[in-house]
């Protein structure tokens, strides 16, 4: 008899299972010991009370007497007489195998954003936000990963409470059986975490479905872990009874650190973090098409936190980690929202980036190309590119060019002294029109802020870049 309180977890992969013929379990398992099914994108959480009927032999592979049309199933055990596992086979050899299982997929960055798009009606929004943050902190405490809640898209992790058919290939089925599912990194739906709203979600009680446990487990899948064979691990294929002192098992920690490392394990990066406050020059700055603020310095890039006043914890990073396929260093950057693209300039060439369906930056095909070919200006390189009014400004030394988005305007270049904002500057390394609609001009380790006012405006500065943009202490 199947334990009515047992909750089962299911991994999807690529095998289609017959409804009629029994299928040996060993045909459905991969080499790591977890079951395969139709879709390797999703990992589901199942509850065992309406589980399909199975016939078990303790020493042999299990056969399925009946299977629903979907496919992936973990065996059930009457009264859990044998250790409940994804079962490879019951032998002492099992205990010498590596327990945690990696998906082979990971996030290529350590600073991740998340959004709760749809809330459950069972708990207050405050309780859900607090629980989601707490669940993510389990993983942040043992890795270099950091998570920041945002309140509008794009976000790396997208959390929703949904019912029935909800837009992916894995509809929920009402109360019981399927409780939640998550999509792993580098998949077509990476970062999406769905909870079945037909369940009763609870906190700090034996009743209902414990949101904290399910969330910690599902986020493990979202970060790149599959199921573990260790019964006490959170990534084990079904849950234990409610615990009021939930914590990661050493197997969970070993698995996630295999993917991302331990906190502070990147000595070189930590050294960079300590040193970036010393006279840091900004070479380029932009609010990219993904909505994040990027500051470029040498071969590294910073991403600002959502508050805009400090650097995300795992940065700086090499530029290629945020802009794959791009230059190793950057002279200037521009985001042109009319075309929904971001440009990186280096020498006489530039690269173009857009956003993929998951909200990540991707290099567009056919780049880099020369500035002369793409913009019609015969210049060897640029110091800064920014938007002013409805025009694009390209600067080189103490001169600027104006472009209308189609072709350069005649009568340029002109000296900085002829422009109401640039006349305050003798050197310009980077410029950006930021989210508050003010212009920021970077020069060496300082910057100036231009605020438009009644058609005129005024300049404030010099100001300390390290203190006000990078969050460094004075």
Automatic annotation (TrEMBL):
CDD domains in the record: ZnMc_MMP
Signal peptide: 1-22
Keyword Signal in annotation: yes
Active site: 218
Residues holding Ca(2+) 3: 173-174, 196, 199
Keywords recorded for this protein, A-Z: Calcium, Hydrolase, Metal-binding, Metalloprotease, Protease, Signal, Zinc
Positions that bind Ca(2+) 1: 122, 199
UniProt xrefs under Gene3D superfamilies: Collagenase (Catalytic Domain), Hemopexin-like domain
Example GO molecular function: zinc ion binding
Cofactor note: Can bind about 5 Ca(2+) ions per subunit.
Similarity-based family: Belongs to the peptidase M10A family.
Protein's recorded name: Macrophage metalloelastase
Native organism: Lingula anatina (Brachiopod)
């Amino acid at each position: 008899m199947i334990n009515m309180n047992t909750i089962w977890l299911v991994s999807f992969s690529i095998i289609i299972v017959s409804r009629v013929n029994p299928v040996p379990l060993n045909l459905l398992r991969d080499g790591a010991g977890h079951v395969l099914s139709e879709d390797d994108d999703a990992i589901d959480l199942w509850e065992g009370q309406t589980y399909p009927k199975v016939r078990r032999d303790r020493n042999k592979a299990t056969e399925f007497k009946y299977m629903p049309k979907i496919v992936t199933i973990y065996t059930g055990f009457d009264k859990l007489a044998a250790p409940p596992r994804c079962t490879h086979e019951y032998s002492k050899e099992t205990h010498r195998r590596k327990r945690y299982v990696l998906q082979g997929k990971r996030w290529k960055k350590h600073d991740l954003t998340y959004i709760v798009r749809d809330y459950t009606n069972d708990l207050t929004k405050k309780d859900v936000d607090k629980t989601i943050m707490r669940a993510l902190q389990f993983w942040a405490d043992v890795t270099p990963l950091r998570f920041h809640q945002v309140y509008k898209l794009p976000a790396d992790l997208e959390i929703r409470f949904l019912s029935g058919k909800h837009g992916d290939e894995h509809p929920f089925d009402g109360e019981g059986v399927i409780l939640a599912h998550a999509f792993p990194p580098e998949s077509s739906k990476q970062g999406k975490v769905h909870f079945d709203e037909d369940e009763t979600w609870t906190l700090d009680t034996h009743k209902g479905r414990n949101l904290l446990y399910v969330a910690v487990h599902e986020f493990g899948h979202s970060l790149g872990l599959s199921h573990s064979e260790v019964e006490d691990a959170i990534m084990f294929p079904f849950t234990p009874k409610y615990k009021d002192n939930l914590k990661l098992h050493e197997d969970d920690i070993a698995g996630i650190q295999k993917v991302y490392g331990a906190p502070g394990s990147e000595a070189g990066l930590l050294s960079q973090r300590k040193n970036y406050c010393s006279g840091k020059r900004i070479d380029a700055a932009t609010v990219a098409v993904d909505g994040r603020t990027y500051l470029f310095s040498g071969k590294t890039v910073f991403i600002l936190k959502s508050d805009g006043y400090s650097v995300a914890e795992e940065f700086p990073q090499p530029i290629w980690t945020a802009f794959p396929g791009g230059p190793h260093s950057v002279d200037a950057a521009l985001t042109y929202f009319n075309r929904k693209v971001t440009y990186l300039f280096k020498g006489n060439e530039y690269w173009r980036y857009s956003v993929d369906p998951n909200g990540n930056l991707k290099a567009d095909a056919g780049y880099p190309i020369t500035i002369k070919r793409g913009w019609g200006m015969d210049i060897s390189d640029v110091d800064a590119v920014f938007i002013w009014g409805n025009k694009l400004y390209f600067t080189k030394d103490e001169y600027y060019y104006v472009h209308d988005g189609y072709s350069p305007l005649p009568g340029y270049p002109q000296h900085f002294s002829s422009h109401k904002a640039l006349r305050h500057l003798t050197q310009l390394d980077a410029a950006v029109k930021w989210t508050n609609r003010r212009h920021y001009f970077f020069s060496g380790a300082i910057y100036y802020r231009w605020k438009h006012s009644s058609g005129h405006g005024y300049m404030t500065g010099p100001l300390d870049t390290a203190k006000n943009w990078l969050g460094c202490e004075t």
